[in-house]
Design a protein that fits this description.
Layout (H helix, E strand, L loop, with lengths): L3 H12 L14 E5 L11 H9 L4 E3 L1 E4 L5 E3 L22 E5 L2 E5 L7 H5 L26 H15 L4 E2 L2 E2 L2 H8 L3 H11 L11 E3 L3 H9 L4 E5 L13 H4 L2 H7 L5 E4 L14 H7 L3 E2 L27 H11 L3 E4 L2 H8 L10
Parallel strand pairs: 1-2, 1-13, 2-7, 3-8, 9-10, 10-11, 11-12
Antiparallel strand pairs: 3-4, 5-6
Length: 356
């Protein structure tokens, strides 16, 4: 495997137990459960969130879309057919339509065309059945949860375990929903956070968005830390003249720091192909920003070429080497579909590591 130099460097640094180059020690890096423990349960279900909490995740991440009757619910996208059985439900065939989603023509069924009661009749399915075949055993068991139910789950688990569990919601397409549907999800999220007493600076909450304007609004309305998400290419939808590359310069990051507390970049912006660190973490820290890259997963298909093992897309690769490289780069948190594995690595348990 061509990965050997990368693996040797990354594993060596972690084995020494040295502090990271720019940030916290490995054990202080936040483990953020991406859509819950979505490597083991269908994403954005109460089962996935609860499993992540039980595995020791510091934060769980619900992506939030909205229903016709203005209830925030957890789905990765407003279009429902990839993650629910809506396409097989004949009673909802007339809800199928084609619309523009940030420059893409998408045909399907959209959450904002359904009331919460109607969404409750749908059942969730695994989004990536060829990669995560084991998760398909849970198809049809779970409903789409509301944000309020996710908060209630977190509080119940906190009472059970005695530890704090953070929430890391992402608002999906807030500008698009306001433009096309007249729905202000920023306002809806602020109302819910206030209702649950989760709008203060010391609340265990981060709010993340791939857009600038909504974050600037939130900065005036609530005190929780805000994160500008950064995609692999392009720029923020609500600022068509901006490019992510410009935003990730020292000047651009200084501007981000005027309304946000951190960035959530695509992992490829933090690590080069050989596993070495780019300058992004150091530049962001110099601007006073936290860095929480996305998304570290176990399967070959999601890993850099250097960290893949022989086998197909679903083969478990050397995710530990990528963790080590992120630790060395100095990140403050990591999004992952597999919180149990990263919690173990952060604690120094390398029993399941690729090269131990």
């Amino acid at each position: 495997m061509v990965a050997k130099p990368f693996l040797t460097l990354a594993l060596g640094v972690l084995a020494l137990g040295a502090p990271t180059l720019h940030g916290a020690p490995a054990e202080d890096i936040l483990i953020i459960a991406h859509r819950g423990a979505s490597g083991e349960r269908p994403e954005h279900t109460l089962a996935a969130y609860e499993r992540a909490i039980d595995q020791g995740a510091d934060y769980i991440e619900p992506d939030l879309v909205v229903t016709k009757d203005l209830v925030l619910v957890a789905r990765h996208e407003t279009e429902l057919s990839d993650t629910t059985d809506v396409a097989s439900r004949r009673e909802f065939e007339d809800r199928r339509r084609t619309r523009d989603i940030e420059g893409r023509r998408v045909t399907g069924w959209f959450a904002e065309d359904f009331t919460l009661a109607e969404l409750r009749t749908l059942r969730v399915k695994e989004q990536m059945p060829t990669v995560r075949a084991a998760n398909t055993a849970f198809n049809g068991l779970y409903q789409i949860p509301t944000f309020a139910e996710i908060v209630q789950l977190v509080r119940a688990k906190e009472a059970e375990t005695g530890r704090t569990v953070g929430l890391y919601p992402e608002l999906k397409h807030p500008t698009l929903l306001l433009e096309q549907e007249g729905i202000d999800t920023v306002d809806l999220l602020v109302r819910e956070l206030r209702q649950f007493g989760l709008d203060s600076a010391d609340a265990p909450v981060f709010v993340q968005i791939f857009e600038v304007g909504p974050l600037q609004r939130l900065d005036k309305l609530i005190d929780v830390p805000l994160i500008l998400l950064i995609s692999s290419e392009g720029g923020p939808y609500d600022e068509p003249t901006m490019r992510w590359g410009e935003i990730m310069t020292p000047t651009g990051l200084a501007e981000v720091a005027t309304y946000a507390d951190g960035i959530g970049p695509f992992m490829g912006h933090v690590l080069n192909a050989d596993g070495s660190a780019t300058s992004l973490v150091a530049d962001a820290h110099a601007a006073g920003l936290k860095v929480h890259p996305w998304t570290l997963r176990r399967e070959n298909v999601f890993l850099p070429v250097a960290a893949r093992r022989e086998g197909g897309e679903a083969t478990i690769g050397c995710y530990d080497a990528v963790w080590d490289a992120l630790v060395k780069a100095g990140v403050d948190g990591v999004f992952t579909d597999n919180p149990a594995e990263l919690v173990a690595l952060a604690a120094g348990d390398r029993s399941a590591a690729c090269s131990r």
